[in-house]
Automatic annotation (TrEMBL):
Modified residues (4-aspartylphosphate): D54
DNA-binding region: 132-231
Entry keyword annotation includes Phosphoprotein: yes
Domain of life: Bacteria
Keywords: DNA-binding, Phosphoprotein, Transcription, Transcription regulation, Two-component regulatory system
InterPro entries in UniProt: CheY-like_superfamily, OmpR/PhoB-type_DNA-bd, Sig_transdc_resp-reg_receiver, WalR-like, WH-like_DNA-bd_sf
Classification via Pfam families: Response_reg (PF00072), Trans_reg_C (PF00486)
Name this polypeptide is given: Transcriptional regulatory protein YycF
Residue stretches making up the Response regulatory domain: 5-118
Regions crossing the membrane: none
């Protein structure tokens, strides 16, 4: 399993060492930098998962380091600063930090915030990796995660079953689905007399997709067999 790497950038060696000690006890791999340029080099040459940055550093302050990091990475960034006003905290978050702690600080609180930011980052990465791709064809765009559809950029209002039918067909272009296949996969029930139900939904779906005006139909009927997506 990959060990999590945390960058600690602070020109006060005692503070950097203190933070590094506590992070190491938590099992994290720690990289230290004493100025902004060292911090940027560390990010460029290592796989950093989270950065703790002092704002007032020589050779590029925390704001500049954050700006450059944000050009290439969404990693969590925590500012650790002697600036204590609400304005400074807001400015830090606006500049791109995910959290802001003031000096002097409680090391255990910092560790708790590090853990929280890493959990959030891992969750977002998991959701991103699980995201289903948008399906597009002939001006039609299907967004499975949002369960929405647009036609030439305009939203198309579909019922849940209409969406499920469209998404099923579009996920396997050129594959022919019988009414029985569609009914079983969309309704999750045995077929019986579901043929008319599927036909009615297909008809409504075609109308909403303005199929009557298309020369190249998106949903084609394969007579005696079923339906296919012609994307």
């Amino acid at each position: 399993m990959k060990r999590i790497t945390i960058l600690v950038a602070d020109d006060e060696k005692e503070i950097a060492d203190l933070i590094g000690l506590h992070l190491t006890k938590e099992g994290y791999h720690v990289i230290k930098a004493s100025d902004g340029q060292e911090a940027l080099k560390a990010v460029q040459t290592n796989s950093v998962d989270l950065a703790i940055l002092d704002i007032m550093m020589p050779r590029a302050d925390g704001y500049e380091v954050t700006r450059q990091i944000r050009e290439q990475s969404p990693m969590p960034i925590i500012f650790l600063s002697a600036k204590t006003s609400d304005f400074d905290k807001i400015a830090g978050l606006v500049k791109g930090a995910d959290d802001y702690m003031t000096k002097p600080f409680n090391p255990m609180e910092l560790i708790a915030r590090v853990n929280a930011q890493l959990r959030r980052s891992m969750l977002l990465n998991q959701l991103s990796s699980d995201a289903k791709p948008v399906l597009e064809a002939g001006g039609l765009a299907i967004f499975p995660d949002q369960r929405t559809v647009t036609l030439y950029g305009e939203p198309v209002e579909l019922t849940p079953k209409e969406f499920d039918i469209l998404y099923l067909l579009a996920s396997y272009p050129k594959k022919v689905f019988s009414a029985e296949n569609i009914f079983q996969q969309v309704w999750g029930e045995d077929y019986y007399e579901g043929g008319n139900t599927v036909m009615v939904h297909i008809r409504k779906l075609r109308k909403k997709l303005e199929e009557d005006e298309r020369k190249q139909k998106l949903i084609k009927t394969v007579w005696g067999v079923g339906y296919t997506f012609n994307g």
